[in-house]
Specification:
It is a single chain. By secondary structure, the chain is of the alpha/beta class. It folds into two domains: 169 residues, Rossmann fold (3-Layer(aba) Sandwich); 202 residues, Dehydroquinate synthase-like, alpha domain (Up-down Bundle). A hairpin with a 4-residue loop joins strand 6 and strand 7.
Length: 389
């Protein structure tokens, strides 16, 4: 286990009807003017008016900033920075899933910064001061409600990039599983895939023998697999939706990788896919890439893939090599069973797109991705993408 500092300061208000406490919660922190960031128009029907009413009851002014799309745009965040400054808000409140939350984070980060807020994502600047962010979660997926990261993209360049800072962590997150009942089956499955990948990425980072974080990661992934099957069968299964919502938060707050090196490798490859083709749902993209990546790197850590197979799929095979092969195949079958893509054709990509995708992943062949034995260069990335044709 390596030395580490760990903090997860976000206060979670979890359970039925907790969103109705928003006025009291915000007032308790002493905020007076709130910019509400959201995407889905369905939020405007019932949830948003209720939130505005509860804030008003507590003497808090609120202002709408809607229209955030999936795979959120930095241009939208730039608009939000200008609006937040003009209105003099003191809190950014995100309602939704990862896209509104990440947009809210970048608005908060850009509020005090004189340059382009995307400078944080492109590593041209380091965040030193930000407005506080609060969250009402309506989609279990990205884990941004507890994470340090904010991922946005620029459609003009195709660059999709995230940055990490403890200042990105929301002050509070309100989580009522009932708010996810209306999420479509495809988005539910894609969200579960993203939840799983946040812990699988950490699990496959190098470990000491019998490292507790690895056991936590696999337990969370297994619980998510159980929950998504239940939620797809019955969208209003409260226990399944509750598991997905809590797992979303705990999978990406650092807990399942505590005491380990940290270097995502599947996510950077997916960011190239949805940055290049924004209609690709991020969770579906990570499921797609994981299948190909796992098959490509399996032999680099056979023992870890064997444990993955035995814990997640109850593989009764003593030989690590055989068990690891079964595990990789079983995960591909699982993703397929919940409607996730397994080929480039299913997401509208083909051979002609591979050079551009490889360039986006590797910065035109100027960087490796991953860490240690997982590190991948341009040739590796191209081979992984070609296996998806």
């Amino acid at each position: 286990m390596i030395d580490f500092d760990f903090v997860s300061p976000t206060k979670i208000y979890f359970g039925k009807g907790k969103e109705t406490l928003i006025g009291c919660i915000v007032a308790g922190y002493g905020f007076h003017r709130v910019l509400i960031v959201y995407g889905s128009p369905r939020i405007e029907k019932d949830l948003l008016p209720m939130v505005e009413s509860k804030l008003a009851e507590n003497g808090i002014g609120s202002f709408r900033f809607g229209g955030v799309r999936p795979n959120p745009l930095v241009s939208k965040a730039r608009e939000g920075v200008e609006k937040a400054r003009a209105l003099g808000v003191d809190l950014i409140l995100a309602i939704g899933g990862g896209s509104p939350i990440d947009t809210a984070k970048l608005i908060a980060a850009g509020f005090y910064y004189e340059g382009d807020p995307f400078d944080f994502n492109t590593k041209r600047a380091i965040l030193k001061k930000a407005l506080p962010v609060g969250v009402i979660l309506t989609h279990a997926s990205a884990g941004s409600e507890l994470s340090t990261s904010a991922v946005l993209q620029d459609d003009e360049t195709g660059v999709k990039s995230g940055f990490n800072s403890d200042l990105n962590r929301p002050l509070f997150a309100i989580e009522n599983p009932e708010l996810t009942y209306g999420v479509s089956p495809y988005q539910t499955a894609a969200g579960a895939s993203d939840i799983m990948m946040h812990s699988l990425e950490r699990y496959f980072d190098p470990s000491d023998e019998e490292q507790l974080a690895d056991d936590w990661a696999l337990a969370l992934v297994k619980n998510t697999m159980w929950a998504v099957k239940r939620a797809l069968k019955d969208p209003m299964d409260y226990q399944a939706r509750a598991a997905l919502m809590l797992n979303s938060s705990l999978s990406h707050n650092g807990l399942t990788g505590i005491g380990k090196t940290f270097g995502f490798v599947v996510h950077p490859m997916e960011h190239a896919l949805s940055g290049y083709k924004p209609d690709i749902v991020h969770g579906a993209g990570v499921a797609l890439v994981f299948n190909a990546w796992a098959a490509y790197v399996r032999t680099r850590d056979v023992a870890k893939f064997a444990k993955f197979a035995r814990v997640l799929f109850n593989v009764d095979e003593r030989d690590d090599e055989k068990a690891s092969i079964i595990g990789v195949a079983s995960m591909k079958e699982f993703f397929s069973s919940i409607g996730m893509p397994t080929t480039f054709a299913e997401v509208g990509l083909g051979e002609k797109d591979i050079p551009s995708l490889v360039s986006l992943v590797t910065g035109n062949n100027t960087r490796m991705i991953g860490c240690c034995h997982q590190s991948l260069g341009a040739e590796d990335v191209e081979a992984i993408f070609r296996s998806l044709l």
